[in-house]
Amino acid sequence: MLRTLQIQNFRCLEAVSLELATNCSVVTGENGAGKTSLLEAVFTLSRGRSFRSSRRDAVVRHGTQAATIFGLIESEHLTHRVGLEIGRSERRIRINGEDRPSIGEVTQLLPVQLIDPTVHTLIEGGPDRRRQFIDFGVFHVERRFMETWSQYRRAVSQRNSALRAMSADAELDTWDASVASLAETLTEQRQTGLALLDQHWPSLMELVLPDTEVALTFKRGWREDVSLLDLLRQHRARDRDSGLTGDGAHRADLRIDFRSRVARHQVSRGQQKLLASALVLAQVAAIQAQTGQQSVVMLDDPAAELDTKNLDRLLGLVFDIPCQRIVTALDATRLQLPTDAPVFHVEHGQIR
Predict the structure, then answer these.
(1) Rounded CA separation 57/45 (Å)
(2) What region, left, alpha or beta, does residue 225 occupy, with left being phi > 0 and alpha being psi -120 to 50 degrees?
(3) pLDDT, tens digit, for every residue of 207-235?
(4) Of 2, 33, 58, 329, which residue has the fewest beta carbons closer than 10 angstroms?
């Protein structure tokens, strides 16, 4: 649980301090007031990056040198003081007063999920988006995943360098074997994570889109009828031409079919939002069931793209799953929310 949050010079938020409820906190305000920036700060504290920009310094308030985010996190009956400072050229992470080299430990302490107006891209977007989704879940349930993923990325990078350098076949044989072995391990870990997701996904789907046939199929990133090692050797000439490894776990995808056809071609934007939200919440449930760790689920303008009936379905799902919730809205009276939820109002970068 994220109990307190302090933000300085993040986007339009100059100096913000608030205590969050364990169940649900509501944030209201006009468009552009800073509601989404508050959620972005929580997301950045957890994952070390924004969901709105790939540029790290984009979150630093204009005219200042650094943005800082501080939170008190309760995890397994312990309280952790977590801070993140983002400068124009560097980032600093601290847990309980000690510097940390990477954001991974914070992400473990504070799993954060976002359901916002762009969540439909999990269905409509490219494979990168779905791989990120898969890997976030696997990261929380498979402790060896981060090491495997890092080693695999390095091996692919080294093979790509060897391809571009026109290195001898003997050197490429070495990298082929390394890439293939690590890809198999990475794929096994992803399949384990998706098996846990499958324990929760069907029941959630039935609640948001009842009597609708939806199927998930994991695509590992290379043909099913051949080993990756053989495929890398077969396609070596092609890969030399492009300077890139064309097959492997970095090409993995999650195919989502709606009535036996690819979902993004068959469903409306509102249905895509419900499908994607059910996937996100299934992952929240899987992480909680496997690790005992509750997530922070942030809903940014949940009414967007949804009629009243489907909005109520979505909120029903969110409040059926154990988690901490932060909900933003132009008008909270449209939402079926707990009557005891504290309401914070954002205006001109200030919160009351």
Answers:
(1) 14
(2) alpha
(3) 888 877 888 999 999 999 999 999 999 99
(4) 58
